[in-house]
Amino acid sequence: MAINKNHEFEELGGVKCAIVEKNASKERVAFLKDLLETNNFAVVVVPSPPPKAAPPPKPAAAPADGASVQPESPPEPLPPPPPETFTIGVTNLAFNPTNAIFGRLLKTKDGHVVTQAYWYQKESSSHDEIPYYEKKL
Fold it and tell me: What is the sign of the dihedral through the CA atoms of 114, 115, 116 and 120?
């Protein structure tokens, strides 16, 4: 059981894992798997369960007094299927993504420290050598 939302555990594919991210796209899985394996973590990826669908609305009851009944409208088209998403975990149960990023524990392939912007793929390279708490504003 997780102490808080930032440190979750689940069994993925029969292996107890620390959850890195849920509902990740294929592109995000490829990015994180490569990054985590570069840092010597064993990565487990499983498809996320589909979201629960809302029950279909019940049809209106026919009037009992024999009043005129309006013709039924054609059924609404089915919504598009949800996008395929995945849950990413690592077998090291001590791993916490927040601590790994701000503790400067992860490195890119070229040896730079992984920043928050790089982790969330807002920047294509990680060249932040000055910790966030030492930056002059």
Answer: negative
